[in-house]
Design brief:
Elements (H helix, E strand, L loop, with lengths): L14 H5 L14 H17 L10 E5 L12 E3 L12 E5 L5 E5 L4 H10 L7 E5 L7 E5 L10 E4 L7 H16 L12 E3 L4 E2 L3 H16 L4 E8 L2 E9 L9 E11 L11 H21 L4 E8 L7 H4 L4 H7 L1 E7 L4 H15 L1
Helix pairs in contact: 2-5, 4-5
């Protein structure tokens, strides 16, 4: 029986070429925040450039996220509309770019300190910036300054070379999201809050969706040449997050790296209703079954259950997973755990209590 997907109408003669088209991922992240899109675009740009034999590895470069009015007040810039293809020189320049990594550039003179001074002179040192330090044989790095180089301590350093998203690296990426956005609600915008009434332990009815979105953004930033797919429906159900390597490769080289099942463990719901311990235990067990089934049916290399605990007492991952640990090991499901505090004060109290208890 013919595959109905082969009925391409007017495109029938082009079907073989369409099926073998390599994916770039450009335009597939339009629902992400601008800063996340920009960082991802820059990392893909540098990867593309370093694949070419004529790539330069001589000097540091800066990529700065700007808006249109910025160009009106900065002199000596040259328009680079196709910089994001990776075909143009990157090193020894300051690049003022939009979210898709195309824009305008200029040379700078001197070393790394002069590059930082050039950003100050252009009044760009408080804008989101990536510093590219090129080095041959896969040792190049990108330093991400989300608040600009004016604050050199607020930096995240990434290798340019592609790293396969193993469970350990995925967990490490989520750890970063947890520390920056999920650990406590303090400093988090109201639209990202996980709590309905934090002081009373009432979890938001949007908590799982907001955790999922925060983690998805973090994984996009950490693994820019992977597609982080959310809510993918199939006969076996709907996955929470998938990490798929299908950018810059032919369709037959796609790798399904990991499927992540996300669970928020609530003690109380958004109306104050209480969840019974056996209900929570069933929720965790279902998460193991979902991660295993999705991973097996859809041929993922790794399966992960990620639980975010919003209950009053942090009993720790060993207690949370005690009833399913053996089953998860047998099924090949990696168990990950994060505890969500109700405020920075709650966090400090818990830390002090733990220290006193352990002596």
């Amino acid at each position: 029986m013919a595959d109905p997907s082969d009925n391409a109408g007017a495109w029938q003669n082009e079907l073989p070429a369409i099926k073998n088209t390599w994916l770039t991922g450009k335009g597939s992240d339009t629902d992400l925040p601008e800063a996340a899109r920009f960082l991802r675009a820059v990392r893909l740009l540098v990867l593309e450039r370093e694949r070419l034999p004529e790539c330069e590895f001589d000097r540091t470069a800066a990529m700065v996220l700007v808006s249109g009015p910025f160009y009106e007040n900065t002199q000596g810039l040259t328009r680079c509309p196709f910089l994001n293809t990776g075909k143009d020189r990157l090193t020894g320049q300051v690049h003022y770019l939009g979210v898709s990594a195309s824009g305008q550039s200029r040379d700078y003179s001197g070393g790394d300190g002069d590059l930082i001074d050039a950003l100050v002179a252009d009044q760009a040192d408080a804008l989101p910036t990536v510093i590219y330090k090129p080095k041959k044989e896969g040792y190049s790095s990108l330093s991400w300054y989300p608040t600009g180089t004016r604050n050199l301590d607020n930096v995240h350093v990434f290798p340019v070379v592609f790293e396969e998203p193993t469970p350990e690296l995925i967990k490490r990426a989520i750890d970063g999201v947890y520390q920056g956005e999920l650990k406590t609600p303090d400093g988090v915008p109201s639209e990202a809050w996980l709590w309905e009434k934090a002081s009373m332990g009432w979890a938001s009815n949007k908590a799982e969706a907001r955790v999922q979105r925060a983690v998805r953004i973090g994984l996009h930033a950490r693994f820019p040449n992977c597609r982080i797919k959310a809510e993918q429906p199939e006969k076996d159900g709907r996955t929470d997050l998938e990490v798929v390597g299908d950018f810059g490769v032919s369709p037959d080289a796609t790798t399904n790296f990991a499927v992540l099942e996300m669970k928020v463990l609530r003690e109380k719901g958004y109306t104050g209703n209480t969840y019974a311990p056996n209900t929570i235990a069933a929720h965790i067990k279902e998460g193991v079954n979902q991660a295993y089934t999705y991973g097996t049916d859809r041929k993922f290399r790794d399966r992960m259950l990620c639980c975010f605990d919003m209950r009053a007492v942090n009993v720790g991952p060993e207690s949370v997973y005690s009833a399913v640990k053996s089953e998860a090991e047998t099924l090949g499901v990696h168990l990950c755990f994060w505890y969500l505090y109700r405020s920075s004060k709650h966090y400090r109290e818990c830390m002090a209590a733990t220290a006193l208890k352990t002596g």
